[in-house]
Write a structure and sequence with these properties.
Blueprint lengths: L2 H10 L18 E2 L3 H29 L38 E2 L3 E4 L2 E6 L2 E6 L6 E7 L10 E9 L2 E8 L4 E9 L5 E10 L11 E4 L2 E10 L12 E4 L10 E2 L6 E3 L10 E10 L6 E9 L4 E4 L3 E7 L4 E8 L6 E6 L1 E2 L5 E4 L3 E9 L12 E10 L5 E5 L5 E4 L8 E5 L2 E5 L16 E7 L7 E5 L5 E5 L2 E8 L2 E9 L3 E9 L2 E3 L8 E6 L2 E10 L12 E8 L2 E9 L21 E6 L2 E6 L2 E8 L2 E9 L6 E2 L1
Parallel strand pairs: 15-17
Antiparallel strand pairs: 1-15, 2-11, 3-4, 4-5, 5-6, 7-8, 8-9, 9-10, 10-13, 11-12, 12-16, 13-14, 16-17, 18-19, 19-20, 20-21, 22-24, 23-24, 24-25, 25-27, 28-29, 29-30, 30-31, 32-33, 33-34, 34-35, 36-38, 37-38, 38-39, 39-40, 41-42, 42-43, 43-44, 44-45
Amino acid sequence: MSSAHKIILMLSLLLSAGSHAAGTAPRKTLAPFASEQALSSYLQQLQARQAALQREQQKLQRATVQSMSAPPAPPAPMAAKAAPAPSAEATESVTNVQTAGVDEGGIVKLHGKHLVMLRRGKLFTVQVGGNALQPVASLDAFAPGSDPSGSWYDEMLIDGDTVVVIGYSYSRGGTEIGVFDIGADGKLAYRATYHLRSNDYYSSRNYASRLVGGKLVFYSPLSLNLRRGDPFGGFPALRRWRPDAVPSDFKRIAPATRIYRTDEEPEPGFGLTLHTVTVCDLAHRDMRCEATAVMGPQGRVFYVSGESVFVWTTRRGSDSGVFRIPLDGSAPSALKVAGAPVDQFSFLESSDGHLNVLLRAEGQGDAMWDGARGRGDMALLRVPLASFSDGRDSAPAGSYKPLPGGGSYGLQNRYVGPYLLYGNPGNAGRRKADQAWPRQPLYALRWADAGSVQALSLPHGVERIEALGNDAVVIGAQGRDLHFSTIGLGAQAAVATRYIRADAAQGESRSHGFFYKPQAAGEGMIGLPILAADERPGLNKSAASVLYLRNSGLQLTELGALAARSGQTPDDGCRASCVDWYGNARPLFLQGRVFALLGYELVEGALRDGQIREVRRISYAPIASTVR
């Protein structure tokens, strides 16, 4: 029996979600703790149970190692994985976001007449309005007088005239939020730094921060150590940084009445996590944050819609749960489910009031590089939002549609219009041109229908899936070449045409590395960083070039590329975040102009005789800024 059918059989034995209420409001919600005393008593009970379990484990260990001179140390508790107001001109987005209206933290944003870049621990602004291309200002992305060592500054968002830099500090207790003012002249000024207690947020496929309606949104799984004397030391908290800041400056931002739990007791000996959604109001100069947390098993895959954060957790075996945590601070709800999503792109909160999730039988979440892992048969879960409740109910077995194509390493998936598309990269690392290349399937199904799944045959791997308006493009390697296959998404999905870039590979794997600029119905321009086929993307490599293609009715035509200047990388005196974890190259389309962000260079191109030609470039490196 396949894993997908096992999932369905298991779920048929669980409680049904019953009749669904009208609309998307949950029928019931999770229950919060009534008071601080109730929460404290519950934690004390858990501590006692964990201590008893630890004693039993130690007793068993002593019994099995009597011949040894000393008993082994008790097992350590499991922990989360860790690792080192704008003008009208700013209405254009330069970020390839997943959900309309939900901006994602990135390395480049637009403010009025200026591009704002975050790189290697510094903020930079470059004037682009009025046909200019001129560096304006730079500023450290960390607090003046602070020690940035052991900190990473990865993401940036802009709301009005406020720039927010999101980083992680291993030495200062969690997520670091730097707040800066930006003027109409592009000048930057430091305002404040805050620390949000959290585990490491890094993911190669997801982003730590979102901006929804002027509210800064974070999800963080906080691992609770019940063996410590004060378990509240791991609860959601915020502090404003000052030179003499101490741990006691942290103030809790989630009282007991905003901490929820399900009906299931924590698994003895396994990690307990506070799945925390923090919403910070940027309307005030002194940032204000509130948090809602759900106590449950470990989990790391999350998706942010315009109204909620969905968090997927997994217990032992295939038992899973999905939490729906509203951004407005109202009570969360939950549903018992099975399987595991690949990453944030596996989710879609659709306008018909459903949650759609692509699942594999097994998965490890998307912390670090775990999103590329996972295995087993696949299924599409589709449930009404109104079926969420207090966590006692399960998604009905009929909510799962078995799908073909077992998900292997590096599985890609994306919702485009009415379709869910997914496929595997295949043996993308093989670069021998004389070897036969097995054709790879791209699977396509209408997520709202119960119809059959199409398998489209591609002569290349599926390394990236992106929207081209209402259609799609699939990008992947075949031998030493990089293929772009356009997919028409009408009544049926169909491969339309293919462009091949010889001797090339993707230069950026993150979703923000790609951008499509629609220009008319069925018309637009693609930008994607590329490298030579013999090169592989590296965290310390300078970007090679950005390739531009024109889409006209799903026919792709090469327009050319804008390349980085060869030569030695400038010595920027980097003090923090000196590895480009989020990449360093982006195609940019704004105000009718075409740019390539390539490390410390910003190159402008123009269409001449059907080809992109370099017009000018600047270096905004902190050691010097030159215009040619």
